[in-house]
Design goal:
Blueprint lengths: L1 H21 L4 E6 L4 E6 L18 E5 L5 E9 L4 E7 L6 E8 L4 E9 L3 E4 L2 E4 L3 E6 L2
Antiparallel strand pairs: 1-2, 1-10, 2-3, 3-4, 4-5, 5-6, 6-7, 7-10, 8-9
Keywords: Signal
């Protein structure tokens, strides 16, 4: 009986660890502290809901600004190798869009590079702040 219980518990733990690893490297919360922005992404399941903007439904993710409701929803993603994703983003007004790549640099560092379309802009102190074409993000909590 103890052996069966041990096997059941061990199997449950192993299944949980396997499920966490299968989420992939393009899932989670990534931050850029310099510009106070973050990426909330899940490119595998594409089931991210933007808080307060549920009307968009489930998406691959979004770029958000801390302490602000403005965001750039990610509308589509396409895998380009094991360490790079090409994605399309649109501002939450729907008036601007862009294409960017997100590349895994190391275990916890990602490079977001705008490749075409509009420039990423975020609100800051009542004005629009343009973000650089390349931003480094780190995996957060």
């Amino acid at each position: 009986m103890k052996r069966k219980l041990f096997i059941i518990i061990f199997t449950a733990i192993f299944a949980t660890v396997g499920a966490q690893q299968s989420q992939g490297t393009f899932s989670g919360y990534l931050t850029n502290e310099e510009y106070d922005v973050y990426l909330r992404i899940d490119f595998q399941n594409q089931n991210v809901i933007i808080p307060g903007q549920e009307i968009y439904g489930e998406l691959p993710g979004y770029l958000g600004k801390k302490h602000n409701s403005f965001c750039w929803p990610i509308t589509s993603v396409k895998k380009k190798g094991s360490r790079e994703i090409v994605m399309t983003m649109v501002n939450d007004f729907g008036s601007e869009d862009l294409t960017a790549t997100l590349t895994l640099q190391s275990d916890s560092t990602y490079l977001l590079k705008q490749t075409s379309g509009s420039t990423l802009k975020i609100p800051k102190n009542g004005k629009w702040q343009k973000l650089p074409k390349m931003l480094i993000f780190t995996k957060g909590h």
